[in-house]
Design brief:
Length: 111
């Protein structure tokens, strides 16, 4: 692992699975005297979620701010038909009809 990768991982945000609180490494946690730019993994062992008191084990890595949670998953959903404009859908439907017609004509031509 390069130093660059480590630095990026250090700024990963962690979300509390119990209450949804997000620990921002760039902000730290002033209630617990955690200075800004403290990576989540370097928080004191007795650090708890400031909202619900959950242990750090209850938190999950949701990535840096530049890559919001669920971004990769959303990319997958974005490839669905729902992203098509009505015009694109019409082209799709019309294209399907033309293909069906050509298919029918080719069958007809074989006889
Ligand atoms: Zn919490």
């Amino acid at each position: 692992m390069s130093t660059e990768t480590t630095d990026l991982a250090a700024l990963d945000r962690y979300e509390c699975q119990a209450c949804g609180y997000v620990y921002e490494p760039t902000k730290g946690d002033d209630k617990r005297q955690v200075p800004p730019l403290t990576p989540f993994v370097e928080l004191p062992d007795d650090w708890r979620c400031p909202v619900c008191g959950a242990r750090t084990a209850k938190f999950s890595n949701i990535g840096t701010k530049g890559a919001p949670s669920g971004f990769k998953e959303n990319l997958g959903y974005g490839l669905g038909v729902n992203t098509l404009t009505p015009g694109q859908k019409n082209i799709l439907i019309f294209g399907g009809l033309v293909l069906a017609f050509l298919f029918f004509m080719s069958l007809y031509g074989l006889q």
